[in-house]
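Inputs:
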Amino acid sequence: MPELPEVETVAKGLAPVMEGKRIQMVQVNRPNLRFAFPDGFADQLRGCKVLRVGRRAKYILFALDNDQTMLSHLGMSGCYSTLAANEVYAPHAKSKHDHVVFTLEDGAKVIYNDPRRFGFMDIFASDQIDACKFLAHLGPEPTGNALSAKQLFAKTSVRKGAIKTALLDQKLIAGLGNIYVCEALFRAKIHPFLRTCDLSLSMLETLVCHIRNVIDEAIKAGGSSLKDFSNTDGELGYFQHQFAVYGQAGASCPAPKCTGEIIRMVQAGRSSFFCPVCQTKEI
DNA sequence: CGTACACCCTGGCCGC
DNA sequence: TGCGGCCAGGGTGTAC
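Outputs:
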């Protein structure tokens, strides 16, 4: 479900509900999500105060006052919702996928729901969180100034596969997913099948600029609501209304004066949406 | 090391 | 209305 902007939206929604509060109870409704929960998962969290809810790439990080950090990945369909202390937890059709329920000291509840169960949770020592197996090999964040075309060029210049596939590699840039890669390549007018090593430094400068912009715009819009993604208040993001190419196969290219038609092709098992006219294969 | 692919799982949607 | 097939925002492990 979620790429970086959606994860950022979720983390921002959880922060005011959880930060500064102790976890009173953790109800785990099944032994595993994508992976088994770590030993004593609920016991390790119970009684801890949540210091900070943050994000790295597509991971949500809950820093705790016992020098541990809980890491949560939403996979394809994971989402968190919150209930205030005076709201009743009422099971409904979708609650069979409510896999973890955190109850805070003030009675508020944080509920993790994940139909496909591709998400997972783990716990690491806070001072080693960046070195944990999930985060150790991640590339720079696409937001802010962490990402530079020059350092990206050092990595892209030796890769022979398609640029679209490379951009989904979290070791190159952390947090991009299929939607925003398609959108950024369209804005940069780069064909997704172009060989990574064929991109010039100036093309990468353009691409980096558009990656940063599309991610920033999506964060401001509260993420994209595909399937039933919502923020922790159940409100929908609205960036999906701004997709130029993602999911737009058959539509005419939105670029000014372009007469092309958006097409969908499969690359490395994932859909690529692009305009074959204005996204050039020429260097 | 880079790349390609199968796989984990459920639900929604489309066509018949 | 039901059913099969296809599709889905991600990441890992394996084989080459």
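Remarks. Chain A has six helices and ten strands. The first strand of chain A starts at residue 23 and ends at 28.
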